[in-house]
Amino acid sequence: MSLVVFPFKTEDPDVVLTNLRIAASHAAVSKVLAIGFEEESTFAAIQESRRDIARHTSTPVDLILQDRIGDLRPGKGDGMNTGLRYLLSETDSDRIHFYDADITSFGPEWITQAEIAADRGYDAVRHFFPRSSTDAMITWMITRTGFALLWPSTELPRIEQPLGGELLFTRSVAEALVADDRVQAQSNWGIDTLYTFATVQSGFSVYETYVEQGKAHALYGGLTDLKTMLVECFAAIQALRGETVGESVNHEVEATAPVPPSITEKVGYDIEATLRMPGQRWNDRQVELLDSFPEAVRTGVLENRHSATFAFMDEEAWADTYSVLLESFEPGDDDWEELLFKLWVIRVLNYTTTRALRGYEHSQRYLRATISDYTERAVL
Ligand code: DGY
């Protein structure tokens, strides 16, 4: 039987309670656990309703606060690691599922699909879903790019959504992740990268199951909303760069289906607000830090102080830029963090205007081909 975990911060309580109810009603689930970041209004709403859900479904619903486990910013990583530890110390369940609490398209089939793959013997099951051509920009430009450049012949660059938080792990995967100090230290947004990396590095088998209707939740506004996530996801990859990963992992990806217009026609971020960003918040130190980059990149980036300039940041320029960042970026240094953010925004604007504009199919083919090309030009 399985434990289903929903880490949450402040969300729409109706959405969260619906999701808790769906999980508690599932025949494969013996317990549901909600893990809050702090005691706020969503926490209070769950506290009030959880016994009622348990009575109607005959499945206990527990509610706890996340522990302070890691040593980086306290965030999603502490929440998920609290769930793994709870599985091992408070239950004898042989599987754990994680789902974001704010998904409005969540349904019992998310749990069923993962259970079927686990019944077939897979150690880890990852949900993946269609995303709009301008969504997933950290996934493509940071995580999949980094996996391709650093571990080109492994399964890592072939994982569809390495930042996905919808997962199933068997108890032995949970034990390995709890025993892994790198994973336990990763208290922030870098946790998804660490879970993906550590499961593949340990040789656990991975099945990716396709959720056709997509993951409906709030999209971001201007890309600044994503700065913290960007920095933490890049720093997580950078910290792993000396690691070796074996090539033989059993990894299967489920066939996909035609993508609905609600996704192919969606714009993932506010382009107008984003266009202004690389021109803002400059200082002399950031200009100096640009000296380590190829001349064409340095000149192109600096031009943004006068007008939005991004035609130069194609996939080749980005791979060169990324390689310099892997060597030189310093997490926690405000100027490096701001420069990483500007470079990434410039890359996203280049991709949006040269590729995403040409349509959903074109952009998906382009992103996949780029990752595949990167695996041929490894930096290690
Ligand atoms: C990503 O890039 O996958 C982040 O979730 C932002 O969309």
Strand content: 5-15%
Across the major sheet, the strand order is: 3-2-1-4-6-5-7-8
Instruction: Note the total helix count.
Output: 16
Distance between the termini: 42 Å
Bound molecules: (2R)-2,3-dihydroxypropanoic acid
State the assembly state of the protein chains: single chain
Q: How does the overall form come out from the CA principal axes?
A: globular
Spans of at least 5 consecutive residues whose pLDDT stays below 50 are none
Q: How many extended strands?
A: 8
Q: What structural class do you assign from the helix and strand content? A: alpha/beta
Arithmetic mean pLDDT? 95
Spell out the helices and strands N to C.
EHEHEHEHEHEHHHEHEHHHHHHH
Radius of gyration: 21 Å
What portion of residues is helical? 40-55%
- Main β-sheet, in a few words? 8 strands, mixed
Q: Summary?
A:
The chain has 380 residues and is of the alpha/beta class. It binds (2R)-2,3-dihydroxypropanoic acid.
Overview features:
alpha/beta; 8 strands; binds (2R)-2,3-dihydroxypropanoic acid; eight-stranded mixed beta sheet; globular; 16 helices; 380 residues
Characterization of this structure:
With 380 residues, the protein is α/β, with parallel strands linked by helices. Helices cover 48% and strands 11% of the residues. The chain contains 16 helices and 8 strands. The chain has helices at 13-24, 41-57, 76-90, 108-119, 137-150, 171-179, 181-185, 191-201, 227-239, 261-264, 271-275, 284-289, 295-303, 315-328, 334-354, 360-374; strands spanning 2-8, 29-36, 61-65, 95-98, 124-128, 167-170, 206-210, 251-253. The chain has an 8-stranded mixed sheet, sandwiched between helices. α2 (41-57) links the parallel β2 and β3. α3 (76-90) crosses α6, α5 (137-150) packs across α14 (315-328) and α14 (315-328) runs antiparallel to α15.
